[in-house]
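Structural prep section.
Before we set up the soaks we want a predicted structure of the protein with protoporphyrin IX containing FE in place, mainly to decide which crystallisation condition to try first. Input record follows.
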Amino acid sequence: MRTDMLTSLIIANTEKDTANVKTVGGETFEPMIDEEIRGNLVDAFVAGTDSTANTFCYITYYICKHPNMKQKMISEIDSVFSNKPYLTSDDLLKLKYCEAIIKESSRMIPVTNFASRYMTEECEVAGYKWVSGTMFHLNIMGVNSHPKIWSNPEVFDPDRFYNVDQDDDKNKYSLIIFGGGPRICPGRKLAMGELLLLMASVYRHYNVELVNMDEPLKIVTASANNVQELKVRISPRIN
Ligand code: HEM
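Run finished without errors. Recording the tokens verbatim:
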């Protein structure tokens, strides 16, 4: 069997031998019908395209504004590429400074400002009782720029995430670009892999510069923070 997403959706919960129904802990799981498979694919395209494309624009903007950091990133990319024609998934794990840049760019401008939760039961949050039917909006932008959590939150500084313990509480709960809990973004690992590969592939071969270094990033905020325009000058690198 191939391991692509469509195959995985088609064979999900399919017993290979006889029956098409699987029972786990008394619950029955059946293969998805075509509409469900289509729905999952549409979800992935809708949630996974603009999010990653916009994040790549934020990254481009911030590193072009900070030439020293850009140079450090390029040195890392060159050292991991070495003389290889392409990168493996293991190589991507070595791009620690690039990963820090992705996180810091997303902290400065998250793709979405809010994640929402609808309470189906009465609950207690922050010492208050809330009735069933309450809708909570998690303020992602607010958390990612909270001065109690981040020193100088308005300053772009990838070192916040470079060579630090990724599992400490601050990293786990204070940077919520992908949401959290059972509804956390299911595409987060794919998105990180895509962004690392794109950064490495572009900056290995090209110089990218902002056409106008003084122009602020033009963003239109709807459900996502969409980059309206980002003019860059691209030229081949001379190695
Ligand atoms: C940089 C890229 C991305 C960012 C910043 C991002 C961010 C988010 C956020 C904040 C949520 C809400 C999570 C929550 O409510 O706790 C979400 C949900 C979701 N994302 Fe992503 N995402 C990205 C890429 C992707 C990709 C590549 C895919 C799929 C291929 C994807 C598929 C989804 C889906 C299906 C949901 C809804 C999950 C649910 O409601 O159970 N996302 N994403």
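Observations: The beta strands are 22-24, 27-29, 114-118, 123-125, 128-130, 135-139, 206-210, 218-221, 225-229, 232-236.
Flagged for discussion at group meeting.
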